[in-house]
């Protein structure tokens, strides 16, 4: 198992050990003892999302009740994105994106205080992700997927839900005091 620290501190890409032969493969998708050396969080909720090609979900976060997410793709391929939204962070508003796919087995950990989003590159994709806090709709923050101050280079022309179409710019959320503080 390999933990790769990316440009955003706290965001990890994980390459699990995959044991395979002509019958198929086996991997540990999570092992608390092994992961705790890099990810010091307790997971309390698992989610499963299925989407069609070009669907973009995000950018989502919660404050309070910030959620860290350990994301993996079990079918298809997505471009997965983390954005630091912690006011005062040295990398506030910066993003990192990575292709996660059923055949590359990569996982990405997005820590609390970051927004998360993804777009589907394959005909269909299924994501499974563990969360460090429960879903609290009253705490939900939706950031504009195309916020020019963040500047994510999405690889698709996206289809969005009505809710995601109404996402707000990061600067507005900051000025309204809706974002978490960097500690």
Report on the structure:
With 183 residues, the protein is mainly β. The chain has helices at residues 32-35, 162-165, 170-175, and strands at 2-5, 12-15, 18-21, 24-27, 45-52, 56-62, 69-75, 77-84, 95-101, 107-110, 114-120, 124-131, 140-142. It has a 6-stranded antiparallel sheet with strand order 1-2-10-7-12-5, with no helix packed on it. The two termini are 29 Å apart.
Topology:
Blueprint: E1 2-5, E2 12-15, E3 18-21, E4 24-27, H1 32-35, E5 45-52, E6 56-62, E7 69-75, E8 77-84, E9 95-101, E10 107-110, E11 114-120, E12 124-131, E13 140-142, H2 162-165, H3 170-175
Antiparallel strand pairs: 1-2, 2-10, 3-4, 5-12, 6-11, 6-13, 7-10, 7-12, 8-9, 8-11
Number of helices: 3
If you compute it from the alpha carbons, what radius of gyration comes out, rounded to the nearest whole angstrom?
16 Å
Shape: globular
Fraction in beta strands: 35-45%
- Count of strand segments: 13
Numbering strands along the chain, what is their spatial order in the largest sheet? 1-2-10-7-12-5
Q: Mean of residue pLDDT?
A: 97
- Structural class category: mainly beta
The string of secondary-structure elements, in order, is: EEEEHEEEEEEEEEHH
The helical percent reads under 10%
């Amino acid at each position: 198992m390999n933990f790769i620290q990316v440009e955003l501190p706290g965001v990890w890409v994980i390459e699990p050990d995959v044991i395979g032969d002509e019958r198929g493969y086996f991997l540990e998708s999570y092992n608390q003892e092994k992961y705790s050396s890099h990810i010091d969080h307790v997971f309390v909720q698992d989610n499963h999302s299925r989407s069609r090609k070009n669907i973009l979900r995000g950018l989502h976060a919660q404050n309070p009740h910030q959620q860290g997410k350990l994301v993996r793709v079990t079918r298809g391929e997505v471009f997965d994105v983390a954005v630091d939204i912690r006011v005062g962070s040295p990398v506030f508003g910066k993003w990192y994106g990575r292709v996660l796919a059923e055949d590359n087995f990569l996982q990405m950990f997005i820590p609390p205080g970051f927004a998360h989003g993804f777009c589907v590159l394959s005909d269909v994709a299924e994501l499974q992700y563990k969360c460090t806090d429960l879903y609290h709709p009253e705490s939900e923050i939706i950031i504009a997927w195309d916020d020019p101050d963040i500047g994510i280079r999405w690889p698709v022309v996206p289809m969005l839900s009505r809710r995601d179409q109404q996402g707000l710019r990061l600067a507005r959320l900051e000025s309204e005091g809706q974002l978490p503080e960097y500690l």
